[in-house]
Design brief:
0% strand
């Protein structure tokens, strides 16, 4: 799950740079309108945060991560809806709300799984490794997105990122997740010998 998520985070930064282009060029709004869109995403995050604890045990961690990646992927593609003449603002608002819901689901599923499957003595190291595995690709993709948006239409960056995220979601749903679902929490307590 960490490797697929790291690949996904390798394109998430495209949204960070492409969203500014979307506001100015796609929606024809001033940069301040970005604040309105972030508030919509924040509302989605509140809903995602309130529902994450209920969704995780019902669906399992791999399905929650896959669903989160798929939501953001579909949202990325939807934010390029004006390529086919669709009313962009409605798609953008809906897409950013969905991204907001997906973000806490993704984080809660990944952090809970990492904590549950890592022995107590290794929690710090595992947390640091997981952070690096996701934040380095995301930071690099922000820089890549900033360079690419100068030469590639922002909508194609969003479609590309959306496609990669949907592919990552598909990879999580088609690979064997039985071991993850069946994994018992690890602990450092010595086992009683027979």
């Amino acid at each position: 799950m960490v490797m697929v998520s790291a690949a996904a985070f390798g394109v998430l930064g495209f949204f960070d740079t492409a969203l500014f282009e979307l506001v100015g060029k796609g929606l024809g709004k001033e940069a301040a309108f970005f604040g309105v869109l972030v508030a919509v995403q924040g509302a989605g995050s509140v809903l995602g945060g309130l529902t994450a604890a209920a969704v995780l045990p019902r669906w399992g961690p791999a399905a929650v991560v896959a669903t989160s990646l798929a939501l953001v992927g579909v949202a990325g593609v939807a934010m390029a809806a004006d390529l086919v003449g669709a009313p962009l603002l409605a798609f953008v608002v809906t897409a950013l709300f969905a991204c907001g819901v997906a973000a806490p689901w993704l984080v809660v599923a990944m952090v809970t799984t990492r904590q549950r499957l890592t022995p107590a003595r290794l929690q710090g190291r595992a947390a640091a490794a997981a952070d690096v595995a996701m934040m380095v690709p995301q930071t690099a993709s922000i820089a890549d997105g900033a360079a690419l948006v100068a030469v590639v239409d922002y909508r194609w960056l969003m479609i590309t990122a959306g496609g990669v995220l949907i592919g990552c979601a598909f990879a999580l749903t088609t690979t064997s997740t039985r071991a993850l679902a069946a994994a018992a929490p690890l602990d450092d307590a010595p086992r009683a010998s027979r």
